[in-house]
Write a structure and sequence with these properties.
The protein contains 11 helices and 12 strands. A 6-stranded mixed sheet has the order 1-2-3-5-7-10, sandwiched between helices. A 4-stranded mixed sheet has the order 4-6-8-9. A two-stranded antiparallel ribbon has the order 11-12.
């Protein structure tokens, strides 16, 4: 791909997609959205690609979520193309494909970064990685699928604790409760993710893809069961974003002070 915000590399039947903005903690801007979404589309329609690995550049951050600096400049985090906007946050949050997607989480996955990890079918994490939905700390909520996917993928009370406190989940604890498949030292992260991808790629590809579609209820590129969640998500976000607290949280964050909540 020409845009260096996202790099792609083929290894046999595997496509490795790397968010390549380590200087911005691999935060999502419009270029990252377009890059990930386009790579997933290419993988879906290329019969030679059987598994996708999504990771981040560097050793500190898988993805820090939305690029707040870009937002502060008035930039959109999504491309202008409506078809690409429909892929959801990061080109992935509402963009299920039939090919299995492995997240190779090389550092912290916070906010939207955690939501991208939740969208992956399998996750291999470095032992220092952490997962968090800290939106409640700044007057927002995990509106890119996190608010319902975390509760689907963790025991409900545990999910509620982490979602309502915004505290991070260390990789070993995430693995103990099934949010992560394997935890390995950072040096072993990509070899472990590739080994898992190769094991999947050795199986009959159409069988693997049919299995994923049935397991997740994917039909014509959509997960039908998610539709009511997205509709509710949209309504709640519209109300929340009109509140004083939704303006206070980001302002307090930018000013490096404790927010003053008014519940209105």
């Amino acid at each position: 791909m020409t845009d260096t915000a996202v790099l792609t590399e083929r290894q046999g039947h595997i496509l490795i997609v790397t968010i390549n903005r380590p200087e911005a903690r691999n935060a999502v801007n419009a270029a990252v959205h377009a890059g990930i979404g386009t790579a997933l589309e290419q993988a879906e329609h290329d019969p030679e690609i059987r598994v996708v690995i999504v990771t981040g550049a560097g050793d500190k951050s898988f993805c820090a979520g939305a690029d707040l600096v870009a937002l502060s400049r008035g930039e959109s985090l999504a491309p202008d193309d409506p078809a690409q906007q429909a892929w959801g946050f990061g080109g992935f949050a509402a963009h299920p494909i039939s090919k299995p997607v492995i997240g190779a989480v090389n550092g912290f996955a916070f906010g939207g970064g955690c939501e991208l990890a939740l969208m992956c079918d399998l996750v291999v994490a470095a032992d220092h990685a952490q997962f968090a939905l800290p939106e409640v700390k700044v007057g927002l909520f995990a509106a890119a699928g996190g608010a319902f996917r975390l509760a689907q993928q963790l025991p409900r009370k545990l999910a509620m604790e982490y979602m309502l406190t915004g505290d991070p989940i260390p990789a070993p604890r995430a693995a103990a409760f099934g949010l992560v498949n394997h935890v390995v030292p950072l040096a072993d992260l990509m070899p472990a993710a590739i080994a898992l991808a190769e094991k999947i790629a050795a199986n009959a590809p159409l069988s693997v893809q049919a299995s994923k579609r049935v397991a997740l209820g994917i039909d014509e590129g959509r997960i039908a069961a998610d539709a009511p969640y997205w509709e509710h998500n949209t309504r709640e976000r519209a109300v929340l974003m009109r509140s004083e607290d939704a303006r206070e949280g980001p302002r307090a964050f930018a000013e490096k002070r404790k927010p003053v909540w008014k519940a209105r």
